[in-house]
Amino acid sequence: MGKPEPITGEFLPGTLALLILKALERGPLHGYGIAKKVKDASGEALAIEEGSLYPALNRLLVKGWVRAEWGISDNNRRARFYELTKEGRRRLAEESREFERLVTAIRLVLRTV
Amino acid sequence: MRWMEELKNKLRHVRGRDGFDVELEEEMRTHVEMRADELEAEGLAREAAVRRARSEFGSVARLQEETRDAWRVRWVEDLVSDLRYAGRAMAKSPGYALAAVFSLALGTGANTAMFSLTSEFLFSEPSVEDARSLAVLRVGGASHSPQREYRFLKDAKLYEDLAGMREEGGVNWRQGDETFRLNGFRVTGNFFAVTGTPVWLGRGIAAGEKDTVVLHYSFWRTRLGGREDIVGRTLVLDGRPFRVAGVLPEGHRTLVGFGFTPDLYLPVTDEREVVKMIARLPAGMNRGQALERLQAAGAELDRVFPPAGGVPRKSGMSVEGVRSTDRVSSRKLLPVAMFFGMLMVVSALVLLVACVNAASLSLARAESRRQELSIRIAMGASRSRVVRQMLAESMALAAVGTACGLALNTALARWASGLALPLPVPVRLDIHPDWRLFGYAALVAAGSALVSGWIPALAATRGDVQPGLKQGERNVGSGRRRTRSVLVAAQLAATTVLLSAALLFLRNLGQASSTDPGFDVAQTTWATMRLVPERYDSTEQRVAAAGQALERVRGIPGVESAALAGVVPLNDSTTIATGMKTDLNPQEKQVRSQINRVSPDYFRTMGIPLLAGRDFTAADREGATEVVIVNENLAARLFGRQSPVGHTFGWEFAGGKTVLQVVGVAKNSKYFTLGEENTAAFYTPWLQSRERGTMLHVLVRSGRPAEGLGRDIRGALLGLDGSAAVEVRPMRTALALAFLPSRAGAWLLGSMGALGLLLAALGLYGVLAYAVSRRVREIGVRMAMGAGPWRVARLVFGQSFALVAAGTGAGMAVALLATQPLAMLLVPGVRPGDPVTYLAVGVLLALVAAAATAGPVWRALRVDPASALRQD
């Protein structure tokens, strides 16, 4: 199939948080759902270590950007669902802009001869 | 505040931490299972699916730890462990901890006590509702106005309301067979309503009431036994019954401030009384606008009540605030504010000395803990972590020290609050610990923790860990030894400044006590008799009563002479400043002079020599030629070298002029302060004065012992009128007021200086003793090599004296500059730059250093060279 080599490890600091926020944009998801969404959306190019989602999620809880609640998943398992708070939604917009700016800047640097 | 938000989230989390771990585990397990389900659905066997899912997930244990980290309140947990460590370390060397806590307790105790005193004396707010919108009005330059003017302005409705208050007034209180003189504030009926002064029991004085009183808490407590059923009871004041309307709360502060505490508030009843006008400004009106309104009303006021001297009142109008900051910013208070500023600086120096003490102690200890610290650093603790650890230790010490200091402060404050100040006005400082004090103490504790912990922590963690790891390494840290020497020198410098100021005030006290006031204080007695005004309505009655009082006192056995005076020198004063002319020189001369009205025999009674002319006689009465006795200074200013006796001088005032014929010249003396110089003064006959108060000052000259004499005088005066309030004091006691500034200064600064000296001595001793103990081996080597005890002693003494010389030298340079502004608080003979003060300070510190060094030297000399060499 000629799948590209997945990107692992530390890429840009804070990107994981941004990806989580983005995954939650359309509604609450449990941890596994978030991991799946990130993987699917990136065409499996971003293979994060799945477990590292949890420290990142908890940091977001501390900041108050997401909130969590126990619920029942589609296949009838008890799972914790994460949801963006109002502040989280605001930060998502802000961080996306920041990221765009950064990427543009990096691209500019790379193109410079 | 984002971090506050986060901390709140974290704290909410901390409460349910056990549940969190279980939930996290469950959540991670579910995650892995979900992934395994999916892989199974893709066709993997269950076991293989689970294995793959697990490996994709990563280490559960590590991830759980990382997740928990997100929630940890890191610095709090570090701090707790640091403090626990500090506690253990201190328990291991209790001597060090005790010495440091003791130093810091004394330093913070003294410092916070001075803070309480200053904030209560200068910055206590009056007990009124919304002090911001209250203002004091001055009309025609006078602080108090006649009541008809007060009523006129009140009826003019310039402001929301206007109340009146007369804050200096005696009241005779008859209790049983005795009469006491109390201090009462006389207020208009609307005073309590306008100012919104809170009343604790009962209520305030209401409009229109003429016979109610409101008691001060401490008067009620101490003189009336604090009985709860006091409201509605009757006190006999100035011969009339007054009903107690209420009692003020314990922390009541008057509008006057400065701890001024009356015994009671009562209504103004005498129409002749003048009142200070207090306005409640309408919302939104500032003092500038209030003044404009007052000035606009000035012309009408002048029309209805023509002003004395024809000067329009508008020129002397002002509107002043009543809050502490308004009071303190007044220029009249500059010396007072200066004195308190000095106190604060001095107590900050004491605290600094205490901190430096604690710092050098902890530096010395850090050196002996060098090995322990090196191990920690070698084991991977970062330098900042170790520094934080050491700061936590000094923080713990500072916290304990400050707590002890506060306890000391509270004890001091309780003692000081009960202190009756020798003042003619009732001043009582009600010092209670409040949020200001605690806030300040917290600042002090944090500051001292930083000051005493920072330098040692940095110094102890500086440089290479290698030598510290080696057991018994001795030649480390010449840099640290230098740091400590610098600290001790700094401490000595601070102490020098302290001691210079303290000695200055002590010398001032000595000088003031030996200053000759120009009159005799050994054999004079001062009796005051306050007559109830209502009983002596006419001038004739008052004059007659005064004459009879004098006759009765003169009849007492052993009394050589007795006289009446308008004011008693060094307690009160009346001054006049005007242009004067003499019959010899029509040129007007501006003269400021003290005035006293005295009866015949005043000069004999007070022991003031008459240098020329005669004393007043009974013939110098109303209707006779107006005569005067001048002092040497006034004589010289008006008449030059000519004898003034027989000549006249005088001045003009609105609507008339005064011409006085000089009949005598009295020797110069002190009139209002011991510090004054070249003061001009004149005396007029008591019987020719227009003023007839109901307060009589009777001066008595007698060689009899004070006690029996006082009883006799009291009996004689009360025999004339039992309703009068009589107080008798020997003149020496009465002069306490004149000594108060220098005495209080000497006391406060003296104790601070002594404290600083004690602390510096401790520090010096500790450092020197420690330095010697570290050099036992070196001394052993020197002695083994043949150095005599003298050489060793010289070495150690030499080092101490070098420290003292450097420290005191720097301190003296600072003190020389810092004490300059004190000149305005000192009597003329004492100057801030006086070398005697500095010499004394230097000698004192050298003595302390010698004493502090002698012990260590003694020990060093007893070192047995052989055992010293064997010491690790």
> Helical segment tally of chain B?
27
Helical content of chain B stands at: 40-55%
Number of domains of chain A: 1
What is the second-level CATH architecture of chain A?
Orthogonal Bundle
Mean pLDDT of chain B: 81
What is the CATH fold-level name of chain A? Arc Repressor Mutant, subunit A
Q: How many separate structural domains of chain B?
A: 5
Neighbour order of strands in the largest sheet of chain B: 4-5-10-7-9-8
| Coarse morphology of chain A | globular
Largest sheet of chain B: 6 strands, mixed, barrel
Instruction: State the assembly state of the protein chains.
Output: heterodimer
What is the averaged pLDDT score of chain A? 81
Q: Note the main sheet of chain A.
A: 3 strands, antiparallel
**Amount of beta strand of chain B:** 15-25%
Biggest interface between chains: A-B, 22 and 29 residues
Low-confidence stretches of chain A: 6-10
**Helix count of chain A?**
4
Q: Segments of chain B where pLDDT lies below 50 for 5+ residues?
A: 471-477
General shape of chain B: globular
- List SSEs of chain A in N-to-C order: HEHHEEH
**Top CATH class of chain A:** Mainly Alpha
Give a structural overview:
The complex is a heterodimer of chains A (113) and B (872). Chain A has a single domain (15-111), classed as Winged helix-like DNA-binding domain superfamily/Winged helix DNA-binding domain (Arc Repressor Mutant, subunit A, Orthogonal Bundle), CATH 1.10.10.10. Helix content of chain A is 50%, strand content 14%. Chain A is built from four helices and three strands; from the N terminus they run H-E-H-H-E-E-H. Chain A has helices at 15-23, 31-41, 53-63, 86-111; strands spanning 29-30, 66-72, 78-84. Chain A has a three-stranded antiparallel β-sheet. Chain B is of the alpha+beta class and 872 residues long. Helices cover 53% and strands 16% of the residues of chain B. A six-stranded mixed β-barrel of chain B has the order 4-5-10-7-9-8. Chain B has a six-stranded mixed barrel with strand order 15-16-21-18-20-19. In chain B, helix 12 (334-368) packs parallel to helix 23.
